[in-house]
Write a structure and sequence with these properties.
With 370 residues, the chain is an alpha/beta fold. The protein has 12 helices and 13 strands.
Length: 370
């Protein structure tokens, strides 16, 4: 047997893969409520399904680079097609940015907590993750992020609205990061839930180091189809093309994304459905003493139950064991261990989840009285 470690890059044993164990469980048990991974509970429209079927008829042909959809996206942001790169979801963009800018020992500055894939892909290329804790009220700590910048900082990550905290970064704070001139990913994966907030796409016309990423996985509800895009200066797009895998997005994904862009009313319907769920969950859980839901601009709600004297893990385990509801708990932050996140489901699933959490606290109260 060969000693593989002789040939591996030296840092690979320190890299942890993105954890998809919860999806294996969910797919093997369809009766479970999938409220753990920020999926859209509403399925694709018939128009999108038909577009996929038609594209499948040409499945024996390689896809092109999506000139039609790139032109359509560019027009939305008053950019040119040369400013648009179509990707295999926005996850591919995250990976490409790390491969493009980060060498072993280079640093990637990002907030904590945020989407874990940023750090995972940075470490996969030997980068050092510099995670800057958010403020106690879960806002970007911009002074701390600015202090974290060193000559080795190669990439800065701004997720807005941030997952899992749910809030947008203020424009003034964002510009303090942008003006540094360091390659910065502005991830707008959840922006379509609140289109009244203007995209930061216009920044790419002035700043050649800014990348603005979008996905069709969230508000559009195409997570399993895999499509996304990034907006950037033409030169930066060309650099991305140098490292892309050919035919990175399938004919089926291109067709689905193209069709989705034409369904503005469907997108509004899905966003309104989600936002009603956010309102409901926040309203109901805020009635429980010691439980604080953070209002979210995305399709999830982060909750802190620390002041109720329980851990987020305990709640997540209870609702799974008792009611088959899959949620996600988070590592402690600022000494608080009560964080967990609900990914919004159908209205029925949201109600079942809220009632399960309320039963957890009701049972706990009964136990305390014994």
């Amino acid at each position: 047997m060969s000693d593989l470690k002789r040939y591996l890059v030296p840092w690979m044993d320190q890299v942890k893969p993105y954890d998809t164990e919860d999806l294996l469980i969910a797919w093997s048990r369809p009766e479970l409520k999938r409220m753990m991974i920020n999926e859209n509970p509403l399925p694709p429209s018939e128009k999108i399904i038909q577009a996929i079927v038609e594209a499948a008829k040409m499945g024996h042909r390689y896809p092109d680079s999506g000139p039609r959809i790139r032109a359509k996206i560019a027009k939305r942001y008053d950019l040119g097609p040369e400013n648009v790169y179509i990707s295999h979801g926005s996850s591919e963009i995250i990976d490409m940015i790390m491969r493009l800018f980060v060498t072993p020992g280079d640093e990637v500055v990002l907030p904590n907590p945020t989407f874990s894939l940023y750090g995972i892909r940075a470490r996969a290329v030997g980068g050092k993750v510099v995670a800057v804790d958010m403020t106690p009220d879960l806002q970007y700590d911009i002074p701390a992020m600015l202090r974290a910048i060193t000559p080795r900082t190669k990439v800065i990550i701004i997720c807005t609205p941030n997952n899992p905290t749910g809030d947008f970064i203020p424009d003034d704070d964002l510009m303090k990061i942008v003006e540094l001139g360091i390659p910065t990913l502005i991830d707008e994966a959840y922006l379509e839930y609140h289109p009244e907030h203007e995209s930061k796409a216009s920044l790419v016309r002035k700043y050649n180091h800014i990348l603005v990423a979008h996905t069709f996985s969230k508000a559009y509800g195409l997570a399993g189809i895999r499509a996304g895009y990034v907006l950037a200066d033409e030169q930066l797009i060309q650099y991305l093309r140098k490292i892309q895998i050919p035919w990175n997005i399938s004919l089926l994904s291109l067709a689905a994304a193209d069709a989705a862009l034409d369904e503005e009313e469907e997108l509004k319907r899905k966003a309104a459905y989600n936002n009603a769920g956010v309102e409901y969950v926040c309203k109901e859980l805020s009635k429980i003493p010691g439980v604080k839901p953070y209002y979210s601009q995305g399709n999830y709600v982060l909750i802190d139950a620390t002041d109720a004297g329980v851990t987020g893990k305990a709640i997540v385990e209870y609702v799974f064991e008792k009611d088959g509801i899959m949620l996600k708990h988070f590592a402690p932050l600022h000494g608080r261990e009560g964080f967990f996140r609900i990914s919004l489901g159908t209205h029925e699933e949201n109600s079942l989840c809220v009632q399960s959490i309320k039963r957890f606290f009701a049972n706990r109260k009964k136990e305390e009285k014994k």
